[in-house]
Design brief:
The chain is mostly helical. The chain has helices at about 30-35, 50-60, 75-84. It has three helices and no strands.
Length: about 80
């Protein structure tokens, strides 16, 4: 995996410098699944406030940057949770 390093067999104090470390990209699977969701029933079964909240959450989820890394995973998870 990119950005993950294992150092073994160091038997004495050693300073290790890693240049160019790249963080792993964030995972968008749950957000993509949430965005793809459709309500179980026709719109007439939901209140206007409920539909509006759902649509706003989906729009916010679609607006989440697709260039985030693992340090920003909570942004993606929160957006997915808001939809479901």
């Amino acid at each position: 995996m990119q950005g993950v390093y294992t150092i073994t067999n160091i038997t004495f104090n050693q300073t290790v410098t890693i240049a160019g470390t790249v963080l792993n990209p964030a995972v968008y699977t749950s957000l993509d699944a949430a965005i793809a969701m459709t309500p179980d029933y026709p719109d007439s079964y939901y209140t206007a406030d409920t539909l509006n909240a759902f649509r706003n959450a989906v729009s916010a989820g679609q607006a989440v940057s697709r260039t985030l890394n693992v340090l920003s995973q909570s942004i993606i998870d929160d957006a997915a949770e808001a939809i479901v």
